[in-house]
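Figure 3 (text version): structure tokens given as input.
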């Protein structure tokens, strides 16, 4: 009997993880009116982007999202939120050690250096993963952050359970290229969808804001290629994709649940190619950089979505 990759059960556990996250105390997370920066690397950066848009849209205050390596250290914030599954990502730890604003880290591992460097932590150890590819930790962190804004996750959880049973269309399984699209907070999810497909299945993917897609990127879409909208589509977009001969998909429920379908597709495509979706090539669980004393900077020895 062939064992299923760890990521299969991790994807399936997301509805339960979201329920637990929604019940956690969020007192360490940003308060209303605070000026907030959210940082992460890889997948965590895309989750930061989604939260930043949601927080501002909910009227909780200015919120920016940055890749940890690109954080503008001279800019003033009331609080910095760092998202790091591993708790060991070099860029995140370096930033936490340099900033003076209050910091809170969302992590999966309470035994890692981030516990010492962050002013406070929220530990989602129940959402940690054995797979290198992130699925449930990322969405559980976003579920936690959405709940902290006062959102009910009941509908999202129901949609997630449906997404786990959704039959993946054969035309999508056979497609040669995928473009993921978003608007507002789902732009971050579109980026994450593209990353997941690249990591697990080595798929040809791109991601754009939906309104920008028609300003050039639509030229890549053609028969046998997919344009996938994570969230409600702008008026006329489906017709524009149809005119290319491409395949258009639009989320029918919560966009975070729609991401589960993409995760499942990435695993299915990986397995069809004989790839290991738990251990993508060139990736490890965390990026830990070695200091280069001659250059006065860090040089990488691994890459991952941290």
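Below: residues designed for each position.
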């Amino acid at each position: 009997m062939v064992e299923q990759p760890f990521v299969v059960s991790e994807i399936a556990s997301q509805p339960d993880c979201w329920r637990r996250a929604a019940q956690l105390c969020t007192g360490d997370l940003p308060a209303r009116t605070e000026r907030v920066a959210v940082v992460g690397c890889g997948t965590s950066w895309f989750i930061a982007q989604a939260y930043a848009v949601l927080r501002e849209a909910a009227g909780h205050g200015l919120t920016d999202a940055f890749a940890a390596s690109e954080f503008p250290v001279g800019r003033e914030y009331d609080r910095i939120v760092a998202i790091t599954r591993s708790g060991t990502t070099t860029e995140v730890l370096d930033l936490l050690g340099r900033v003076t604003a209050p910091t809170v880290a969302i992590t999966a591992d309470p035994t890692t250096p981030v516990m010492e460097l962050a002013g406070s932590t929220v530990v989602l150890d129940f959402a940690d993963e054995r797979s290198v590819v992130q699925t449930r930790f990322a969405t559980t962190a976003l579920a936690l952050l959405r709940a902290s804004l006062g959102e009910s996750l009941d509908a999202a959880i129901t949609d997630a359970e449906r997404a786990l049973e959704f039959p993946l269309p054969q035309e999508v399984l056979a497609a040669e290229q995928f473009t993921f699209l978003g608007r507002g907070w789902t732009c971050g999810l579109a980026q994450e969808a593209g990353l997941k497909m690249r990591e697990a299945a080595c798929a040809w993917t791109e991601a754009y804001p939906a309104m920008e897609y028609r300003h050039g990127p639509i030229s890549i879409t053609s028969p046998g290629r997919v344009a996938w909208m994570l969230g409600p589509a702008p008026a006329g977009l489906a017709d524009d994709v149809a005119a290319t001969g491409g395949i258009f998909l639009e989320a029918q429920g919560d966009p975070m649940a729609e991401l589960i379908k993409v995760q499942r597709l990435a695993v299915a495509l990986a397995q069809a190619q004989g790839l290991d979706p738990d251990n993508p090539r060139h990736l490890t669980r965390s990026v830990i950089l070695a200091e280069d004393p001659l250059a006065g900077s860090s040089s990488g020895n691994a890459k991952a979505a941290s």
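The chain has two domains: 6-152, 168-272.
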